[in-house]
Amino acid sequence: MAFGETPIRGWSGLLFVGSLSLFVVLFITFALLLILADILYIDWQAVLTVMTSGFIGHALWMSLWTSVCTVVLSVLFAVPMGYVLSRFRFPGHVIVDSLVDLPIVFPPVVVGLTLLVFFTQTPIGRWMESNGFEFIFQPKGIVLCQFVVSASFAIRSAKSTFDEIDRRLESVALTLGCTYWGGFRKVSLPLARNGVIAGAILTWARAFGLFGPLMIFVGSFRGRTEVLSTTVYLEQSIGHLEEALAVSLLLVAVAMTCLITIRLVGGRSVRL
After folding, report:
1. What is the pLDDT of residues 124-141, one digit of tens each?
2. What is the pTM assigned to this prediction?
3. Distance from C-alpha of 65 to C-alpha of 167, rounded to nearest angstrom
């Protein structure tokens, strides 16, 4: 008898797999119960209100376009950074590699506070704010917060993918007359496509649901800097729990769709 790629022999094997699978069942059951609780509690009239509300529609649009801009910026940085960190060793490589992962473990709310301090208390930040590069309480600030918090996912995914590509393929391309740029463009980048796409999707999912730093750095002004995650906070703070839950379920649906897409697009060759 086989379970996936691992053969199972005898009752001891079945008992072993069954006991380990129990943890999977318990975890998934708990997660589904949480989602089911929201679905059963929600007033579907609130869902209709959410779908037809002008300010929530604006928040959805703001979430979409800012997160897409964040993904584009993240990929622009992720591809060259991932390649350099994967292929070359230089003084301070370990420090740089660790700094790339820092935003993943950094409390997001601290990112918002740090950005606020930078743009209000440092000469460079004040100069930028007074010379047309305004980010505080601006839609551009949403993209900046999302980028700082989520770009590391794209960079790490790109690096992991380049790590798995055989370097000898690039060497062969060089012996056949390709330049370093040509070898990268014609060999490494096409092979890394799935990993880059998977990283971009995960980056988008992280940016789309960001909350903490936005409240500190750009606020949540309706019709200006409100996104779906801050809509949840605003609605529940004024007692509209059903509307807040409706928006929350929308965010959960988006996140789940993105995670499933990662598995379908990235396949087994991509490890995040």
Report:
1. 989 988 888 889 889 899
2. 0.80
3. 37
